[in-house]
Write a structure and sequence with these properties.
- Helices cover 29% and strands 28% of the residues.
- By secondary structure, it is α+β, with helices and mostly antiparallel strands.
- The protein folds into two domains: 177 residues, FAD/NAD(P)-binding domain (3-Layer(bba) Sandwich), CATH 3.50.50.60; 151 residues, D-Amino Acid Oxidase, Chain A, domain 2 (2-Layer Sandwich), CATH 3.30.9.
- The longest helix is centred in the first third of the chain and has 21 residues.
Amino acid sequence: MRIVVVGGGVVGLCTAWAAARAGHSVTLVEQGALPNRRASSHGAHRLIRAPYGSMDGYAAMIPEAYRAWGSLWSDLGRSHYVETGTLALGSTETPGWTAASADQMDRLRIAYRRLSRAQVDAEYPWVLTRPGDWGFHLGSGGVLFASRILEDVAAWLASRATLRPGCVARSVDLEAGLVDTSEGRIAGDAVVVAAGPWVGRLVPDLATMVTPSRQVVAYLDAPPAWRTAWATGPMLLDVGTAGFYAVPPRDGTPLKVGDHRFSLGGDPDVDRDPTPRELQEVAGLARDRLRGFADYRVAGGRTCFYTVEADETFVVHRRGRGVVATGFSGHGFKFGAAVGLRIAAHLDGAAGAEALAEWAAGRA
């Protein structure tokens, strides 16, 4: 088939990879460079981990996500993943996400260690705890080097697909399989729209399904006392109380702190640079969780734009010859390779549109 992919973020690139390796003729249209630094999926790193609050479907999809990344590493000839382990913190006063994740792992029989406050203090002395705190630890989970993945997939596709960076998609006819671009019309037997926060402009009637959300992340320099601990320690999740996550520095990448809450605002064509105040505010989410926080220094940061569905589920919608993939929120990157393989398999007739949509929404 002739497959046209609109969007060069992780979902678009991985769909192009999956379709090309299946023998299809692929054209990928991207408004910026490939990879595009403005893409929501661009950046030093993203997390993949098993605990998922009350969203059992996505927790159950994690093994498939790892298998899909393994297939990609095999094609690329190298891996862009390092395992760090997962440390989640919670409080008995506000059980929330951490308690729900522990219950979830019990239901799904995912092995983990429950930690008392004293155990957290003893094993992770750079973490600051309060009365009533507890946590859990998994040996699994780690860092995906996002921008390196995008760069290598684009390089792999260079000799196996038609790449059209700097080509702006202006409209898409899903029924007919047509994409009007700044360089003319492109026709395909199938069109996949993975345009991130720009999807509403290309498919206006689907715009209400998701909301663009401008997110700021901050990069920190850890104080000398804790640099070794961070360099060898696990990711840190406190999404239920303080509302942040911390990605440990690995292989030259910085320590990252992100806001787990959604802004549900912003324009992806502007508001691209975070202000010093915004960076301080995001870093400050970790103030009560990092011992000696005053000695941490904000070293930079960036913004990205997610598309958020009301229940934070992924949207993969089939219409005519088109598939629209959107709503990946802040947790979609970890499934990028799996989503690409699933969409390509669907276009090959391996699964119906309804089954694909249910899988993407975590309801399979």
